[in-house]
Amino acid sequence: METRFMFVFARPPHASLHVQEMLDLTLTAAAFDRPVSLLLIDDGVYSLKSGQQPCLLDCKDIVPVFESLAFYDVEHIYAETESLRERGLFPGDLGLPVELLSRSEIGAVMARQSVIVNV
Length: 119
Prior knowledge:
Elements: E1 5-9, H1 18-31, E2 36-40, H2 63-67, E3 76-80, H3 81-86, E4 99-101, H4 103-111, E5 115-117
Parallel strand pairs: 1-2, 1-5, 2-3, 3-4
């Protein structure tokens, strides 16, 4: 059976190095031809918000790393519908296309994964 990875992004993108570290782990798993998915929940949905200006916070711009995920054959980028709505965001506010999941659907998607990384 093939090992399937899901990386869960639940923290805001520029509050710490967690998002950058999770992206590094994601790219590493994908580089070894493993099926990889991302799930953006809670404040993690801000990671893909268009129009960010991390330079104002003296932070690294992570959007190009997210954009490179397609080159690594990252299979799915999911965003939780309720997390977007609670933050006043819409799918069109995000810099990449995502697959929307409701909270009630997330468990079934996670059940299909071999490894779930949530730091």
